[in-house]
Amino acid sequence: MTEAVLQQLQDDRECEGLLECMLGLNKLDKRVFQLLVERPEPLSVDQIAELIDRERTTAYRSVKRLQETGVAVKEQESKSKGGYQHVYRVTDPDEIADGLQQMLNEWYADTGQLIQEFRDTYSQDSSAEINP
Q1: Hey, is 82 helix, strand or coil?
Q2: Which positions of the chain have pLDDT values less than 70?
Q3: What is the mean pLDDT of the chain?
Q4: What CATH number corresponds to the domain at position 10?
Q5: What are the contacts of 38-43 at 24+ separation with CB within 8 A?
Q6: What is the domain count for the chain?
Q7: What SS3 state is found at 129?
Q8: Distance CA 28, CA 34 (A)
Q9: 35: part of which helix (H) or strand (E)?
Q10: pTM reported for the whole predicted model
Q11: What range does the domain containing 110 cover?
Q12: CA nearest to 59, candidates 36, 75, 77, 39
């Protein structure tokens, strides 16, 4: 195995590291995810922006990435003075884990197919060279 692959296999994994590796979440995204995990109530983008001390647009982009990867969901909440706002909460952890497991299974199957194609391609080429 290459050094890079061996290092990946030997590194300690944390849940947030898993989200980074498999879903491409950045440091801020992971921070917002953790914030949503820690809060019992869903949060609006404005609340998130205030808690992470960033602009509203930055908080929105991060929440949008979490939503697109399936680790956060958007809900509509009525305001006390009328109207509504969108709030975000973390997706059920079992749903997240199931999605990650499905991604891993698909990667494993795809990689296995590539390995078999490699074997088929180069086994034929080497036998042709041996028996011209």
Answers
A1: coil
A2: 1-16, 125-132
A3: 86
A4: 1.10.10.10
A5: 41/87, 41/89, 42/75, 42/77, 42/87, 42/88, 42/89, 43/87, 43/88, 43/89
A6: 2
A7: helix
A8: 10
A9: helix 27-38
A10: 0.74
A11: 92-132
A12: 36
